[in-house]
């Protein structure tokens, strides 16, 4: 009950009182970046303009801090730091203004300074706060999305500086992605494929996190042109494509594949994000399954009755779960 009150307090502060919060950073309008050459490293695949415009707070080194309010409070969150860095990189490429490159490199430096080895010798970034998700993720917790987003950030740092230390760290990060959970990595393997898990315990195949993470693997391939990395990318992307039907409810998309009695639908934001991510993966791979579901879910999004039903269903889910 206390956790539920804390969660509702964060939502109230963000949406009703319009206080600056983590939602200011996460929930802009997703859009495909049109300035992309999918076969050469450059700007990140999404525009992330709303992320670049995040007003703060920041620490003394210019590293983004998110305010979750309630018992969570202000936190440095590995995924947010990487995505803010990518947003600044895009803005620098668009404007040529050096301040954006400096902000990008501030986030890169945090990644260089804050990665740690686990008991298996795998290098991971950790979130140092508890988070409610199917119970509570206890700090410190790692994430396959954090690893993939970190790859996207560091490959661009290497591209711009040709400093070998960034590429060396990419190699360690990629190892975490290609290592199964039981050996300290962030990958789950089962009869349905190879999964990069946004949350490790529990691991419920969160779709948006998997798609963002696999973009990081593609970025690493573009920098190295290593055929082994390319094979891993297609193992992961084929797993996504071949399992999309499991995320399709017939009127909306699922956020994850958990075993809850009520399935976890996406919010409007995450449904829109899925569509953008699917279009990006189609542009990279040419796999028509990505385009099929991007178009299908766009159709769902444009149906008023589907949007309304999904909103009501999601509201009930929040009451009983999180």
List the helices and strands and how they pair.
Elements: H1 2-16, H2 22-26, H3 49-52, E1 66-67, E2 74-75, H4 78-95, H5 98-114, E3 116-117, E4 123-124, E5 131-132, E6 136-137, H6 144-161, H7 164-177, E7 187-190, E8 193-196, H8 207-224, H9 227-243, H10 268-285, H11 288-302, H12 304-320
Antiparallel strand pairs: 1-2, 3-4, 5-6, 7-8
Helix pairs in contact: 4-5, 4-6, 5-6, 6-7, 6-8, 8-9, 8-10, 10-11
Short description:
With 322 residues, this protein is mainly α. It contains twelve helices and eight strands.
Provide a descriptive summary of the structure in words.
With 322 residues, the protein is mostly helical. It has one domain. Helices cover 55% and strands 6% of the residues. It has a two-stranded antiparallel sheet with strand order 1-2. A hairpin with a 2-residue loop joins strand 7 and strand 8. Helix 6 packs antiparallel against helix 7 and helix 6 runs parallel beside helix 8. 41% of the residues are buried. The model has no long low-confidence stretch (mean pLDDT 93).
Order of helices and strands: HHHEEHHEEEEHHEEHHHHH
Percent of residues in helices: 40-55%
β content, as a range? 5-15%
**C-alpha geometry:** globular
| Rg calculated over all Cα atoms | 19 Å
Strand order of the largest sheet: 1-2
Please outline the major beta sheet: 2 strands, antiparallel
**What count of helical segments does DSSP give?**
12
Supply the number of structural domains: 1
Structural class: mainly alpha
- The low-confidence parts are none
Give the distance, in angstroms, between the N- and C-terminal Cα atoms: 11 Å
**Average pLDDT:** 93
How many runs of DSSP E, i.e. beta strands?
A: 8
Q: What is the oligomeric state here?
A: single chain
